[in-house]
Amino acid sequence: MNSKQKQSPFNVLLAFDGSEHSHAAISFLCELCTTYQNIPATVSIHVLAVFTPHRAGDQGPLRDALQWAQSYLEGKCVHTSSELIPGYPAEIIIEYSEKTKPDLIVLGAKGLRATLGILLGGVAQQVVEYACCPVLVIRAPYSGIHRILLATDGSSHSESAIQYLAQLPLPTNVEVQVMHVLPPVPLNPSPEYFARTYPLAPEIMVAYPSSITDDEKSWKEEEENNGKAILDKALEQLGIHGIKAKPIILRGDTATEIINYVKENKVDLIVSGSRGLSQVKSWLLGSVSRKLVHYSGCSVLIAKSQISG
Hints:
By secondary structure, the chain is α/β, with parallel strands linked by helices. It folds into two domains: 7-143, Rossmann fold (3-Layer(aba) Sandwich), CATH 3.40.50; 145-309, Rossmann fold, CATH 3.40.50.620. It contains nine helices and ten strands. It has a ten-stranded mixed beta sheet with strand order 3-2-1-4-5-10-9-6-7-8, sandwiched between helices. Residues 114-118, 199-205 and 276-283 have low confidence and may be disordered.
């Protein structure tokens, strides 16, 4: 599908714990490796398993699961290695990624001890929040990536997500859709309304002027034109890499519209941009990205862009 691909090895850090979602992540990586066989590059996968000190009894079963994972992947991918490390999973995964700087961290949405009914486990939540590189959260059951939804707001973070998606070896028949969500129409629009409704640094949202001077019809049309321009630019950027995408523009609460669309249209993977690691580590993901990872019900790729300083 892509006419231009990354030529150097694509390095993946797979966090594996033997859970159903971890096995789904392996299925995804096997598909990734199969696609990479058609281009002059390879996937290098390092499988990392972590056992906590107070659960030393888990070491044996986890080591067996890890050996199985590496053996299974070796039949699909050219470069595969594994490692079992004591410590606390989220902390070890994040520290390991900071040292090795993989192109992508892949992990299951929930581990073996996830509470029944939750959509995202604690380890996945922390890794998505604090890792300094792109993170892909895979949800089981996995039946392949057939439909991808890229959420964009026209920001530099969204542009980074577009470029990242373009370098991935997508399956030949995958359908890519690009969505921009316009904000809901207030009954009495005012600068105060927008200040209350949209706090600083929204993830997937158009920026608003400090005041609205035209009538409602005029500024709604301007919003729609701006939204279409954002989508046109995204389609153009993807087109450079040989990816044809379908534009979608909706209006409403951003996360709600995306999540509802995903459920109604059987989207397999959401791709969203987000701020990367910065000096302030208490709030790395924007509210929309966080909601997508937690509540979308499908796999989510957060393509973080590095922030210096």
